[in-house]
């Protein structure tokens, strides 16, 4: 079963996620992190930055990238990762990869899969959850076996992300994203979600049927998942009391 952690707010969630990352890096200083963008992981990066760990050997693979933005666009995920993750955490830029960042776009998916494989796989993948139920940019209908590839964004996701652009028309229609199958290969998934607007989607991903209508439900197939939600995002979970009990009574070796 996934480990479900219900915390007070996004700041506390960031500390719990940062604990997991710090534990990994203390045992493996050149660990491979899977990096999500968007608003959700910001408190995780902030909590990690405060700890002033030496992260210079950490390697990273972004989950996804827009297709069609001019190079250097401030909302490209390459730029966002540089600004919000690489700089504050003191990561080494050459060790951080974004899908589509080298070679022709036609082979970018396969190239990215090969690069992840060559790095020994992703040790810990940070994930947010979109309102369409996507993880990465795997929109409804995505195959559970999918690998890194070009996808078309849904209207809902483009509207949700329009807050980062001047207008909806400026939001790209396409992206390149790790697939659900790529995400399943990571050793540990850490999925975060905050706010009432995500409560239904969180409940579907954690407790609902496994369905490509809600791509995040694929986490139920993974043997090691930590879901960290605030009270609002966890408010539709049927087994919330049980999850709280299990977290409070976790055994020493689970910490
Ligand atoms: C971002 C990503 C997306 C977001 C999701 C939630 O790299 O892959 O799945 O995690 O859209 O976005 P926020 O966190 O902005 O609510």
What's the SSE blueprint?
Elements: E1 3-7, H1 10-27, E2 32-35, H2 42-50, E3 59-62, E4 64-67, H3 77-89, E5 96-97, H4 108-118, E6 124-127, E7 149-152, H5 155-161, E8 174-177, H6 180-185, E9 188-193, H7 199-207, E10 225-230, H8 240-248
Parallel strand pairs: 1-10, 2-3, 2-6, 3-5, 6-9, 9-10
Antiparallel strand pairs: 4-8, 7-8
Helix pairs in contact: 1-2, 2-3
The structure holds fructose -6-phosphate.
Notable traits:
single chain; 255 residues; alpha/beta; Rossmann fold; seven-stranded parallel sheet; three-stranded antiparallel sheet; 10 strands; 17% strand; globular; binds fructose -6-phosphate
Describe this structure in words.
This protein is α/β, with parallel strands linked by helices and 255 residues long. It has one domain: Rossmann fold (3-Layer(aba) Sandwich), CATH 3.40.50.1360. Helices cover 32% and strands 17% of the residues. The chain has helices spanning 10-27, 42-50, 77-89, 108-118, 155-161, 180-185, 199-207, 240-248, and strands at 3-7, 32-35, 59-62, 64-67, 96-97, 124-127, 149-152, 174-177, 188-193, 225-230. Helix 1 (10-27) packs across helix 2 and helix 2 runs parallel beside helix 3 (77-89). The radius of gyration is 17 Å and the shape is globular. The two termini are 16 Å apart. Fructose -6-phosphate (F6R) binds next to loops.
Total helical segments: 8
Number of domains: 1
Largest pleated sheet:
7 strands, parallel
Residue share in β-strands: 15-25%
Order of helices and strands: EHEHEEHEHEEHEHEHEH
**Architecture, according to CATH?**
3-Layer(aba) Sandwich
Q: Please state the CA-atom Rg, rounded to the nearest Å.
A: 17 Å
The name of the CATH topology is: Rossmann fold
Unreliable stretches:
none
What's the number of extended β-strand segments? 10
Estimated helix fraction: 25-40%
Q: What CATH first level would be assigned? A: Alpha Beta
| Heteromolecules bound | fructose -6-phosphate
Distance between the termini: 16 Å
Structural class call reads alpha/beta
Mean pLDDT: 97
Shape: globular
């Amino acid at each position: 079963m996934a480990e479900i952690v219900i915390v007070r707010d996004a700041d506390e969630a960031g500390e719990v996620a940062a604990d997991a990352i710090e534990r990994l890096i203390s045992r493996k200083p050149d660990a491979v992190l899977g990096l999500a963008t968007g608003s959700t992981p910001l408190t995780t990066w902030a909590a990690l930055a405060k700890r002033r760990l030496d992260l210079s050997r950490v390697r990273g693979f972004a989950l996804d990238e827009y297709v069609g933005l001019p190079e250097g666009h401030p909302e490209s995920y390459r730029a966002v990762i540089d600004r919000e993750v690489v700089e504050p955490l003191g990561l080494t830029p050459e060790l951080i990869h974004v899908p589509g960042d080298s070679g022709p776009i036609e082979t970018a998916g396969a190239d990215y899969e090969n690069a992840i494989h060559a790095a020994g796989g992703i040790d810990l993948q940070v994930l947010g959850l979109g309102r369409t139920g996507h993880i990465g940019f795997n929109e409804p209908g995505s195959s559970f076996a999918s690998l890194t590839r070009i996808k078309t964004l849904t209207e809902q996701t483009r509207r949700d992300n329009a807050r980062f652009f001047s207008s909806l028309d400026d939001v790209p229609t396409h992206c390149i994203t790790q697939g659900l199958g790529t995400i399943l290969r990571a050793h540990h998934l850490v999925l975060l979600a905050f706010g009432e607007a995500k409560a239904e989607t969180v409940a579907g991903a954690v407790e609902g049927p496994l369905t490509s209508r809600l791509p995040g439900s694929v986490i139920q197939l993974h043997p090691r998942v930590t879901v960290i939600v605030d009270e609002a995002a966890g408010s539709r979970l049927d087994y919330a009391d049980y999850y709280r009990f299990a977290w409070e009574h976790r055994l020493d070796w689970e910490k």
